[in-house]
TrEMBL record:
It comes from the Eukaryota. The keyword Transmembrane does not apply. Keywords: Decarboxylase, Lyase. InterPro entries: Group_II_Decarboxylase (IPR051151), PyrdxlP-dep_Trfase (IPR015424), PyrdxlP-dep_Trfase_major (IPR015421). Belongs to the group II decarboxylase family. GO terms for molecular function: carboxy-lyase activity. This is Glutamate decarboxylase. Coiled coil: none annotated. The keyword Lyase applies.
Length: 87
């Protein structure tokens, strides 16, 4: 779309983004800005990507001011902001 190269990131068996693969792909494309589509409850498995981990990875890979994030809240988007994080 719009001549933007799409880079697919591997996922866990539960559908959550594989953060090690994400880091690897970022480093392979260091000269470009990153546009990241984050899932907050996929329709098939209900997987929720860790937005904090994604932002930390982007910053650690040198993408401090060169990234955009879209959060798609298919199943859990309305609930997740109100759920207390434990950890």
């Amino acid at each position: 779309m719009y001549r933007v190269q799409c880079v697919k990131i591997c996922t866990s068996i539960y559908g959550e983004m594989n953060y090690a693969d994400f880091r690897c792909k970022l480093l392979q494309n260091a000269g470009r800005p990153a546009i990241v589509n984050v899932n907050i409850g996929t329709t098939m498995r209900g997987a929720i990507d860790d937005v904090d981990e994604i932002i930390k990875t982007l910053e650690n890979c040198g993408f401090h001011d060169r990234f955009y994030i879209h959060c798609d809240g298919a199943l859990s988007g309305l609930m997740v902001p109100f759920i207390e994080q434990v950890g």
